Every structure is written in structure tokens, then in C-alpha cells.
Amino acid sequence: MDQSNIMSLPQDDRGGYRQARGTTAAKNRMMTVPVLFKGGTGLIAVCTALFLVAPLVGLCLWCTVQELMEATLSPVLWSALKISFVTSSISTLIVIIFGGVLAFVLARYQFCGKMIIDTLVDLPMVLPPMVTGIALLILFGRNGPVGGWLAEHGMALTFTAIAVVIAQVFVALPFFIRAARAGFESVDRRLETASLLLGASKARTFIKVTVPLVWPTLLAGAILAWARCLGEFGATIVFAGNFQGVTQTMPLAIFSALQDNLGVAIALSIMLLFTSFGLVLLLKFVVGSADVSRP
What we know:
Number of domains: 2
CATH superfamily of the largest domain: MetI-like
Helix content: over 70%
CATH architecture of the largest domain: Orthogonal Bundle
Low-confidence stretches: none
Mean pLDDT: 83
Number of helices: 14
CATH class of the largest domain: Mainly Alpha
Oligomer: single chain
CATH topology of the largest domain: MetI-like fold
Distance between the termini: 28 Å
Structural class: mainly alpha
């Protein structure tokens, strides 16, 4: 049926025709899947999936349940867990506050040098972790411009839990800013304008209108940032060091345990694996729920 015939139909019939056409197209797409898997495409897909899954399954099956339970009693493990969750939670909160402001500015305003700032925001995602650690060490170290001034006032940042938080914030900010900016850009500005015309202040409009519209993307960005904070290793070991009970997070504890206690290393790895899996699963649930609820 051509376009002119469709437009001649009543409104209800047009909707029914489009729904039927969409259903037929979906069935045709589903019918092509077995054809694809008859060739090399299916084999490549299966091999790729096995390549991703096999190492993780091997990690979980490496030690027995008894060995895993014995390893969980290690004070090193629980100390690393505590430091990881405390520092990553604080870092995520900082990322949400400061990253949210920057994401809003990038989404709503045009200014000179915006492209440069936008590029610098993405840089930590591709920068080698060791380079990030050295850069932070030069800036905040005792001989650095910021760290030197703080040292003169009796405050040191390097090799402390504060350094862990700084490193985590630096590497996690881009993940939240990308998600938050996409959310702010997707908001229908007419809704905000209507709220302002009805007498609401800008702050009230932001809290009552903008935030409820973008909360799924904000939550998704926060989950990504938290997961990135939990897995941070390179910048942390350079800038904060690897001191048990002070700066030793789970990735650093795994690195240390590999040298003398494989059981603890595997136990920590499995815990970090399931934590990351849970966060990614939660992220997919949040994004899926947002897609379903979106008109």
C-alpha cells in the first residue's frame, strides 16, 4: 500500500496498518537469524562469547568452596573490602555533585573552548592509568604546586586515603559526565519553560521537572562511575601507594596477594567479579526500565 492510500484510511485504520506492518517486519527479522547462524557468523559469535566467558568461569572454578571460605577469613581481604567500598562511595558522591554541574553546563550552554573541555573530559578514559597516577603525583605531591602548598600548611595528600579518592574521582568523572550530559540534552525544554511560566523558580524547576526526567541516565552514570572506582588500580598505586589498611583497595590487594597468597587473591577477584556483574546488571535494568517507561 502506497503512502497516498495510507493517508486516505481513517485514523484508527492507519494505526492498525502501521502496527501490522511493524509486526511483519519484526517476524522477518527473526526469520533471518537461523540463516545467519548457518554461515560463519554464528561460529564467530560463539567463539567471541566463549572468549569473554571462559576466563571468568575458570576463575570461579579454580578453588574449592572450602578454600574460598578460608580465604574470606583473611584480614587483608576485609580490610581491602572496607577501604574499597568506603572510598568508592565517597568518590561516587563527589562525581555526582561536580560531574553533574559540568554535564549540565556542557549540555545547555555554548561558550568558547567548549570542544577543548569536552575533549579533556573524555581524556581520562583513554589515558594510561600510570600516566594518570604520575600526573596526579606531580600536581598533588609534596613538591607539586598544590601538594607543596598543602604540605606547608601541614596537610599531605599522597599515600593517604584522600589520594585514593582523588584518583578514583579523576578516572570516574568521564563516565558520569557522558551519561548525565546525554540525559540533560534529551529533556524537552518546553516542559521547563512551562514550569517557569507558571511561577516556579529555576532551582525548583530543575529539582521538580528536570531531575525526574533524567534520573535514569543519572543513575546509570552513577553506577558506571562506582564500578570504575571499585576497579581503579594504576593511578591509585602510583599516587596513593599500596599500604594495607590505609590505601590498599581490592585491586591492590589482589596484586599483593598474587605474590604470596593465591587463595586470597582468587577470593578477592571473585568478590570483585560478582560485584561488577551485579552493578552492570543493575545498569541494564535501569536503562531497560527507562526505555520501557519512555513514551
